[in-house]
Amino acid sequence: MQDLIGDFIHYLSVERGLASNTLESYSRDLRQYWAYLHTKARLMSLRDASRANVISYLLQMEKQGKSPATIARRLAALKSFYQFLVRESLVERDPTANLESPKLDRKLPKVLTVREVETLLRQPRTGTVGGLRDKAMLEVLYATGIRVSELVSLLLSDVNLELRYVRCLGKGSKERLVPLGSIACQAVADYLARSRPKLVKDPGERHLFVNHHGHRMTRQGFWKIVKKYAAEAGIKKPITPHTLRHSFATHLLENGADVRAVQEMLGHADISTTQVYTHINRGKLRDVYRNSHPRA
């Protein structure tokens, strides 16, 4: 079983180019599934797993209080795994075929107001080396809406300040170009001129944003930066680096941007993922209606 999981993870990495975090999640979910089959269902081979075994596994997670999102994610991992095994002729049948995921209540993402974003972006002290870097990172994140993993993976060659765009690799190693606003361009230019040369120890370092050791900035390191400035800005809402991505999309749509253009900038494969931000928009429209219409 461990070999099969290893072969599957290798396939996801090489053929589909999935991120390391996703690969770890798939691997963990499949190991837990096998532990259930081996200890609870007393199966000695994956080939003996039936549809009933899979359903029993899903029901056990429900009894344990796992969220619908967690159950749906684990079922998706099983479906992808069995499809791979069938395609490679390693099993004869797919016990997950036609099994439906639990319905999820799509939660609207938390977003900041334009004023809150502006307050957050004013916090870094641009008279310091670290402040210049932090300012550039926050400005790029809000200006482009790219994922945090994409932000910390940017190379020097991925940013074109003259033509004002960044190139990033999204999920599945899909490349896209995203416009970069003038304020973000200036922040990056200032960082490159006055901060990065003082941070970088290795002249061969190619990543755009580096930590105080001169190495590539990590997601965890940037999360601490965002948390620090949110506290200094007096923002009480729960905030993560992803909050700026949500705010980017929401503010564009509120100001009339086309949803498909926003989809392309965000790198969403399915437009339904982007359309969650239009629900936020509709909520705002309802508020405007209630406050403005004489018979609301």
Question: Can you give a write-up of this model?
Answer:
- This protein is mainly α and 296 residues long.
- It folds into 2 domains: 2-87, DNA polymerase, domain 1, CATH 1.10.150.130; 114-290, hpI Integrase, Chain A, CATH 1.10.443.
- 57% of the residues lie in helices and 4% in strands.
- The chain contains 14 helices and 3 strands.
- The protein has helices at residues 2-14, 20-39, 51-63, 68-87, 114-121, 129-144, 148-153, 182-194, 196-199, 219-232, 241-254, 259-266, 271-274, 276-292; strands spanning 159-160, 165-169, 175-179.
- A 3-stranded antiparallel sheet has the order 1-2-3.
- The longest helix is centred in the first third of the chain and has 20 residues, at 20-39.
Look at the structure and name the CATH superfamily of the largest domain: Intergrase catalytic core
Instruction: Just give the CATH class of the largest domain.
Output: Mainly Alpha
Class from helix and strand fractions: mainly alpha
Low-confidence stretches: none
Gap between N and C termini: 61 Å
Q: Care to count the β-strands? A: 3
Strand content: under 5%
Number of domains: 2
Give a short account of the largest sheet.
3 strands, antiparallel
CATH architecture descriptor name of the largest domain? Orthogonal Bundle
With strands numbered from the N-terminus, the spatial order across the biggest sheet is: 1-2-3
Indicate the mean pLDDT.
Answer: 85
